[in-house]
Specification:
The structure is a single chain. This protein has 68 residues and is an all-alpha fold. The protein has two helices and no strands. Helix 1 runs antiparallel to helix 2.
């Protein structure tokens, strides 16, 4: 559980750094799309990554069946 917390926090932190860098570059290249990307596209990406992490966390490990 602690591993998922640490890895999840690092992944979200790194995604936020990438998001900020992309928003800065997008602001210079195409200012009109920056607002749309900030409010919609990047939120969807972050929510999808958080949801994927939650799914991976909730997945129960498969138990091997023993031969009878």
């Amino acid at each position: 559980m602690i591993l998922f917390g640490v890895v999840g926090t690092l992944v979200i932190y790194i995604l936020n750094i990438i998001r900020t860098a992309l928003l800065a570059a997008m602001y210079d290249i195409n200012h009109s799309m920056t607002d749309f990307a900030h409010h919609y596209v990047f939120k969807i990406i972050i929510y999808a990554v958080v949801f994927l992490g939650w799914v991976l966390y909730m997945k129960k490990p498969k138990q091997h069946e023993t031969a009878k």
